Amino acid sequence: MAAYSERIPVLVTVQEKALIARMAQEAHISMGEFLRRAASSFRPNEDEQMLEGMMDQMLKTTAQASRVIDDTLSFVEASNQRIASLESSRKG
């Protein structure tokens, strides 16, 4: 049996603690052992990894779209200034 010597304080709600206690009791193990087993078996599934990849791509695409919009607005502003200049030269 391993000699446990480190603590990891984890705050949970009253309801979460009751659920963990019940699940540990049903498994006939201590809450500490239950949490150790749960933590060691946790692995992000493919859906979570895919979602993270999609979010990363969305952030990159959004940044790119924002740059294109800024460039387009700058072009439109410069064009409006050229048009205003031409119109004022025709009136004068």
From TrEMBL:
InterPro entries documented for this protein: NikA-like (IPR053842)
Superkingdom as given in the UniProt entry: Bacteria
Pfam hit, one: NikA-like
Taxonomic placement: Bacteria, Pseudomonadati, Pseudomonadota, Acidithiobacillia, Acidithiobacillales
Protein name as catalogued: CopG family transcriptional regulator
